[in-house]
Amino acid sequence: MATIGEDARAGLERVVSMRIAFVARAWITRANVLFRGRGYTAAQRAHLYVLASKPKGLTQAELAAILRISEASLSRRIKLSIEEGLVSRHPFCGDGRANLIQLEPKGLDALNASDRVAREDRTRLLAGVTDEELAITAKVLKLLTDRIPQPPERSDA
C-alpha cells in the first residue's frame, strides 16, 4: 500500500484517513435517507442527543462547542426545534445575553423513535464486527476526535 517515498505506516495512515472521510460522508448520507421520511436529517438529531445527556440544559455556546459547529449553524437548528416543540429556550441566570437550551418531552420522544431506526441500521452495518473490534475502533476515533482541533471561526481578514 506504500507509494514512492512513503513507508508502510504512512501508507496505512493515508488509507485510514481516506476511509474515515469516506465512511463519515456515507454514514451521514445514509442516515439522512433513513430519517428524511420522518421529516428531519441526521444533523437535526445531533443536538437532541447532546441535550438528552444534559437534563439541566446547555447554553447555545456550550452546545455549539460540543457539536463542533458554529453558533450560527446551531441557531438555525435550535429555531426549527423550538418551532417543532422539541426543545425550549430559557434566559440563563447570570448572563442576560445567554439562553439555556433544554430538551422537551416531545424532543425526547422524537429522539427515542428515531434511535430505534438508527439502532437497527447500526446493527445491520456492524454485523460480524466483534465487541473487541468495536472497542478498538471507538478508542481510535475518540483519540482522533480529541486531537483534531475545532475549526476556527471564519475570518474575513
Automatic annotation (TrEMBL):
SMART domains: HTH_MARR. It holds the Pfam family MarR_2. One of its GO terms (biological process) is response to stress. SUPFAM superfamilies: Winged helix' DNA-binding domain (SSF46785). GO terms for molecular function: DNA binding; DNA-binding transcription factor activity. Keywords: DNA-binding, Transcription, Transcription regulation. The keyword Transcription applies. Residues 13-146 form the HTH marR-type domain. Transmembrane segments: none annotated. This is MarR family transcriptional regulator for hemolysin. It comes from Brevundimonas vesicularis.
